[in-house]
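Troubleshooting: if your tokenizer reports a length mismatch, compare your output against this known-good record of 386 residues.
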Amino acid sequence: MTTKRFLPLLLIALLSITLAACGNDEPTATPAAPVIAATETPVPPTNTALPPTATPLPVAATNTPAPPVTLSNRFESPSVVLKSYRTRGQFLITTTRQDTTTAIQEMALEGAFVRTESAYGSDESFLITIQKDESVESLAIYKIGEWVSAKSPEDEWITVGRDNAGLFTAMSDLLIGFIDQFVLEQDDAQKVGEESVSGQAATHYRIDNIDIFRRMAQMAPDSPEVIEAVTMDVWVATEGNYILKYSIQTAVSNVKETDASSAEVMVTQAVNWSYEIHDVNEDIRVELPADAPQPGVVTIPGFAGGEFPLPEGGKLAANGIGMPEITSQLSKEELVQFYTDALAALGWTFAGDFGVYEVKKGEVSFSMFIDVGEDGKGRAQIFVEQ
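Known-good structure output:
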């Protein structure tokens, strides 16, 4: 396994910005646990901000450890037991090369959750910031009502229906799900004690079993990498029985990395991963920023609102992937003929074949894809080149 293999699941969301318009039919299921071993790019962030420097692993407790406890792994989802909360997290990788130089890669997250009466049960927001060397990129995601709006690192907005948001709808599951699967199901968790986290009473557990981390990292038995040490701390809320906070720290040696000359070298890495829920049940609102387009508002280049020609009985609305879509009572062939005539009468050219047509007037242009909807009637989707 090379460091390239360590693809953060939340970073995939950055790539999906360019693919979001394709959408999925349903919200995605919780992805498999992420690979957590040596890598070149940070993984899903999680909580309490860690300093952007190599952070030493905690020294083992000198007190006599408490006897192992068996945890039931039956924890409530915060979204079920809480009305609102904020989240914060960080995934930090510090790489040390043989010449003692270091490189830091960091992914930070801030989020908010508010339970609502909508069909989706909540409004949520995420701000993800990824920093590598001097490069900083951010991705903002807002799940409000039936829409998901995402702002890419290039400051471009994409709006899709919530059922078609792909990874966006599963993002909150990435932060908690794997902990249930890999950590708290273990029989060797040490109960550290009762503590307070962000004003909430919690039970603190600790696990330092390297084999658990190997499973989380999906490391093969013959992997050349060596996990030197692992400490996993988990805090479970006393009231509500949900995971309130976790922190994972590990040191990995004999990690393969490609240097500037494309040569393979061995490095060591310190990984710090943390996550926390705070501002529990406070007055929190999830709202789109002022520069975001309003979901469901349809705009077509060259036409003011209400001016775009529609056949009798036709309707124009944003579809599930946020694109303008026209439904009609015409057949596909009749709809093509309608727009051939109607757009020509307004001075636009309408040319193409096999359902794909370019519409142009002067310097303004867009594309129309005309096919048949589920009702057997002609429909047209409008695509605007960004």
